[in-house]
Design brief:
The chain is an alpha/beta fold. It contains twelve helices and nine strands. 41% of the residues lie in helices and 14% in strands. Bound molecules: phosphoric acid mono(formamide)ester and norvaline (NVA). It catalyses: carbamoyl phosphate + L-ornithine = L-citrulline + phosphate + H(+).
């Protein structure tokens, strides 16, 4: 079945700059409405969403469920033990069954291919709530937070310090669409996916660098961004990674080298004392909580766009 007028949200670079900025504008608008206490804007009234989680979550689950509800809809949480997609039942069957009950599907999965299969077989929009490959809703929330605190994304310098993971891939794909300076500074052997780096560089939109010296990289950054060193699915490597990532902790000294203009961002959950110090998270220039709040507002706008509303 064709998804006429309906759109998946799987990767940021599936959209052009105008559309991404339009979604972010919408997010600001609906955020202001919700923050004013207004509860009569109910575009999702009569609609339901299935949320498939193969991994744990706080922000993604609560922000999607709350946001969808506040705009009139009903969201259904399906945890790792509920449908066991790919094990109890094939992805293509899950996709077609849920499409007959629900207006939209959100999924947090391990393999990115499973998300692509889900989207391919679903006749309703599928939203990416994180895979091993990327996390586009997070980076949309981050972009919204930068617009609110810095005024824009364009022309800024964002320095991600740590593992070249799913978060980095979404930053790279944003950089393929909106012009800014993106640096991923990581230990050797922990670079982001080479094809994604190449794709972002080939787009010719942004200056993109993959480097290995945090002190050099952060100079003049508008944003210093950090994430866990061991992602979900890699937790048994955590001990080993702590050794390899020595020197990549974001501490007050690194923030000082970055400069007084630098904000600290982290997608959370954070391991304080590992990839970032307690002092940096608690500092006045840390915007991790506005960033977390914006998950809900960015996603509300994404869902409105996906549903053609
Ligand atoms: N940042 C984020 O996606 O958080 P959760 O894993 O808690 O959803
Ligand atoms: N890179 C992290 C992000 C969590 C929101 C992970 O995949 O676990």
């Amino acid at each position: 079945e064709e998804k006429t007028g309906l759109k998946d949200f799987l990767h940021i670079d599936d959209f052009d700059k105008g559309t991404i900025l339009k979604i972010l504008d919408r997010a600001k608008e609906v955020k202001a409405l919700l923050k004013s206490g207004e509860r009569t804007y109910l575009p999702f009234k009569g609609k339901t969403m299935a949320m498939i989680f193969a991994k744990p979550s706080m922000r993604t689950r609560v922000s999607f469920e709350t946001g969808f509800y506040l705009l009139g809809g009903h969201a259904i949480y399906l945890g790792p033990k509920d449908i066991e997609m790919g094990k109890r039942e094939e992805t293509r069957d899950v996709a077609r069954v849920l499409s007959r009950y629900n207006d939209i599907i959100m999924a947090r999965l391990f393999a990115h291919q499973d998300l692509l299969d889900l989207a391919n077989y679903a006749s309703v929009p599928v939203i990416n709530g994180l895979t091993d490959y990327n996390h586009p809703c997070q980076i949309m929330a981050d972009a919204l937070t930068m617009i609110e605190h810095i005024g824009q994304i364009e022309g800024t310098k964002v320095v991600y310090v740590g593992d070249g993971n799913n978060i980095v891939h979404s930053w790279l794909l944003l950089a393929a669409v909106i012009p800014f300076h993106f640096v991923c500074v990581c230990p050797k052997g922990f670079e982001p996916d080479a094809k994604t780096v190449e794709k972002a560089q080939r787009a010719g939109v942004s200056k993109i660098e993959i480097t290995h010296d945090p002190k050099e990289a952060v100079k003049g950054a508008d944003v210093v961004y950090s994430d866990v060193w061991a992602s979900m699915g890699q937790k048994e490597e955590a001990e080993y990674r702590r050794q390899v990532f020595q020197g990549f902790q974001v501490d007050e000294e690194l923030m000082k080298i970055a400069g007084p203009q630098a904000y600290f961002m982290h997608c959370l959950p954070a391991e304080r004392g590992v990839e970032v110090t307690n002092e940096v998270i608690e500092a006045p220039n840390s915007i991790v909580f506005p960033q977390a709040e914006n998950r809900m507002h960015a996603q509300n706008a994404i869902m409105l766009h996906s549903l053609g509303l």
